[in-house]
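Q: Structure tokens for this one, please.
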Amino acid sequence: MQLRYIDGPEVRITAYDRIFVNVEFFGGEVLTELEPRRLFPISGLTKYITLLDNEGNERAIIRNLNNLMPESRDAILDCLKEYYMIPRIKRLIKRTEKFKIWMWTVETDRGIYTFEIRNSFTAIKVLHDGRILILDANDNRYEIPDLNKLDKRSIRLILPDV
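A: Here is the predicted structure, written as tokens:
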């Protein structure tokens, strides 16, 4: 079983059962029921996507999704979206603090959630691309895709020192 690197449009990738893909190389080789996963799930959203077989073995690595044919790229992105389902915060409704534990009530693209943040220094990460990742006390993740697109009240509640 050889690990294949996929650099561009030398494959056709089709979705299978919402979380799997089939990969057909133009040389004739076909790999079926592979699960796409990001090797760098926080910083590498479109680069270095591994394709795992049903035993968890790496069968192929896509170096950059943007080099694939649009249909193949979309098939991979749909599977990744299903696997890495992270609620995106649209606004902060309420924030309270007691004994240095923050309680947040937020509106997300999946509804309203209330959660605790025990250590704001480690639970809130501002990434180089402007996204903010939040890890609650139960290890659930939330994302703010762009802080500047939130209303001013939400920004003040999220970053009280600004």
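A few notes: The domain at 89-158 is CATH 2.40.50 (OB fold (Dihydrolipoamide Acetyltransferase, E2P)). The two ends are 54 Å apart (CA to CA).
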